[in-house]
Amino acid sequence: MTITRDEAWKALALHPDPTLEELFAADPDRLDKLATRLELDVSGEKRGILFDWSKTHLTDELLGEFEALAEASGFDIMRERLFAGEVVNPTENRAAEHSALRGVGREASVEEAEALRARMKLLVEAIHQGALGEVKHVIHVGIGGSALGPALAVDALGRDKPIVDVHVVSNIDGVALEEAFEACDPETTLVAVASKTFTTIETMTNAHSALKWLADSGVADPTGRVIALTAYPEKAVEWGVDETRILPFAESVGGRYSLWSSIGFPIAMAIGWEEFEDMLEGAAQVDRHFRDTQGRANLPLRAAFGDLYYSRLKGAQTRAVFAYDERLRLLPDYLQQLEMESNGKSVTVDGEPSGPTAPITWGGVGTDAQHAVFQLLHQGTHLVPIDFIASIEPGDMLDAAHHHILLMNCFAQGAALMAGRHSDDPHRNYPGNRPSATILCDDLDAATFGALIAFHEHRVFAAAVMLDINPFDQFGVELGKEIAKKIEAGGEKFDASTEALLKEAGLG
Questions:
Q1: Which H or E run includes 224?
Q2: Which of 83, 301, 351, 439 is the most exposed place for a label (fewest CB within 10 A)?
Q3: pTM score, whole prediction
Q4: Domain 99-276: what homologous superfamily?
């Protein structure tokens, strides 16, 4: 018998709450059920990712009840709409076709993406071959998703002798741009301007300053050093960019899902076209898994079950991500935007109060975080579900002891959080029963990286469907921008505190 969404949530709320150690003791097959390898085959090379959710409180019974919730929420229908290129963003009447950029989606959208990608390939390879003269540096100017994605990918994949040195600048604070200027030779630098509308004030202000820097440094044709990445190429032409150096992307591609589009230009410049294609194919293989796999065997959906269990049923207000890999040091920042901008909502798609939605996503890097925040995670009063992410193969050529110690610390933290340790001294007592999941990659290459990002995209979408919210709009970003424009225009009064701050800063 089909149940309603409300009935599914009520059934979930009545579920018993055994400890993690009790769950392992009660089910000898628990690890096999909740630790699953996803196998990737990209460019003839096989590699895998282990997704271990066994140290969470998910059980056979809970998984069954979450599957009922997914059915009651119309998950299969919404997933089909997503990949069919139908409207899944009702407030803006838009599709969300980031998977089509990777070759999985509506046929016409996939063909359009392939054409745009072929255009980008020609430009990237031409630049690498010297068509624009010697190019040693790219300053990539964007904000939000158009900066976070490229920054993460370049940092993760472009450390080993990048083809071109890439600097991603998003902050309007001029210190960030000056830092990039100091690292680059203007004679051998391209400026990539990433803006969907080519009107974003932070991005365009930084772009103007970058052109001035080129001009002041003696570059004869500063605009000729600009590559425009935009959904509105006519705006870039008006701005002065030659259309041969404009790389469009579809208007249906949201910023936080855009690194697969021409926004990925600096990634391809840094790591080369073949690696960029491997990144897309790794993501596409996760797309196909998510599209074709049912129920708890669907890894992003299973992860979303765990997320909702803690945020909706156990009151966890945050979720932590710790990358035990220096190459993924920017991943917590990237996932912060992906989850909080997507699912940080308070109303359903029908405009009704939603109840708890996305947790606050935060995190850090490996052993650094252990000496900063793990005190609270082990002995504090907050329930914080944790994701650990690591790679079996190291990213360095130093003594193997470095990587062995890194991985031992990663696995030890998960074990300690679960088991705890009883002590008659309350200051030395560890309660345990604290949940974590581990994502363990065979190696961190372009394909694996792409798969990791796609996994998290679909995890966020699956949670949104079951929460009955729209993950693809972000109106909450706009209000502060609108007020900033009113301040710039002048003539409007604000609250006493804001007026005093403006006066103190010489802006009032």
A1: none
A2: 351
A3: 0.97
A4: Glucose-6-phosphate isomerase like protein; domain 1 (3.40.50.10490)
